[in-house]
Write a structure and sequence with these properties.
Elements lengths: L8 E2 H29 L4 H18 L2 E4 L3 E7 L2 E6 L3 E4 L6 E7 L3 E4 L3 E4 L5 E12 L2 H7 L3 H19 L16 H16 L4 E13 L1 H41 L6 H16 L16
Antiparallel strand pairs: 1-5, 2-5, 3-4, 3-6, 7-9, 8-9, 9-10
Amino acid sequence: MQERKASTVRGLVMFVATLALFAAGGYLVYLGVRDVAATGRPHAGEIVGGVVVLFFALWSCLGFFLVFPNEANVLTIVGRYFGTEKRAGWFWTVPIPLVLRQRVSQRIQNFDSETLKVNDANGNPIEVAAVIVWRVVNTAQATFDVEDYEDFVRIQTETAVRHMASEYPYDNYEPTGFSLRANADEVTDSLHRELQEHLHAAGVEVMRTQLRRLAYAPEIAADMLRRQQAEAVVAARTRIVEGAVGMVEHALDMLNERNVVALDEERKAAMVSNLLVVLTSEHHAQPVVNAGTLYQ
């Protein structure tokens, strides 16, 4: 349903007009009563006219309403959408008894989802929760296209969070691909797009999404922690070995370029072995001084 502006008048203008109606009606009734007192004959026309004018003045009072900042009033007449007034202030509309006014907040709101237990893309149980920042931008859709837009936001958010968590692994041990822990920006972007697609029908704009909690479920947390530690150790060792090999290669190249010493293949292998032990050992190496010849 498309939102449209309601036909309203500024409240101050109609307040002055209503006061004028009260004054006119009261004056007509006064004239009628005065003439009755002076002549003794009733002047029904003036009195009836005054009563009618006073009735319309009272009826006009029912059309006033207030619109607060960042709120909107959705108006309906006999079950049909009449329009929306979004401007803050004092307004007046036709005071038909069947005109209904419903307030819809357009303030920015937060929704903090419950912590959900979901299986990630690898089938591991994880706990995930998200915070959604949203607001209503189409009051007609929020009022008439869904039963309760706040409840709709809650349910669709939990559904989207579950779907997002099942699409990615918690940790990705492959060189390519995304994971929930390592690619938070990409994951929240996909959650934002999915939520906006679902909540568009309710006239809701998703302004920001953020994961509030992301962890392995308690029953596997200890095992996964040991796996992460093992992966970290392997990665560190790999980096150390890569650096050590590069340093050994650089040392051999410098010895050859400067002609410091000529080594055969066997001595090169021994030197490489010794350097690797020194560079990759977790403890300080104890040097051994060779006091003889190179081949002793």
